[in-house]
Design brief:
Number of strands: 3
Strand content: 25-35%
Number of helices: 3
Largest sheet: 3 strands, antiparallel
Order of helices and strands: HEHEEH
Structural class: alpha+beta
Helix content: 10-25%
Length: 109
């Protein structure tokens, strides 16, 4: 019984972090769905990573601001762990925004 508790195998080959900066959007009258962040999560999943945790820290300057997003990623294999994560959300054709469904409970401008 105790052997199962103490010999628990880690399900990840290894873990790593991924950091992404998301600029603040213009002021809005209502909430909105942040599709860029949704696309980021979708693409990391497609690469084979499992998101263990996400932390966000806001950043404000006189010119604007945004949020730093820090993802702790689990890689089940060495191939997934060693691949380069080079996401350019704005790159035409890289990620299709239609892949992330719109939330009908949110008013979209």
């Amino acid at each position: 019984m105790f052997g199962a508790v103490f010999n628990k195998k880690n399900k990840y080959y290894s873990t790593r972090t991924f950091t992404y900066y998301l600029p603040a959007p213009p002021p809005r009258k209502s909430g909105y769905q942040e599709k860029e962040f949704d696309l980021l999560v979708l693409e990391l999943s497609k690469l084979g990573f499992e998101i263990i945790s996400i932390q966000a820290t806001s950043h404000q300057t006189t010119d604007g601001g945004g949020v730093w997003i820090l993802c702790h990623l689990g890689a089940p294999t060495s191939e997934i762990f060693n691949q380069r994560i080079n996401l350019n959300i704005g790159e035409s054709g890289k990620i299709q925004s239609e892949e992330v469904p719109m939330d009908p409970s949110i008013i979209h401008e």
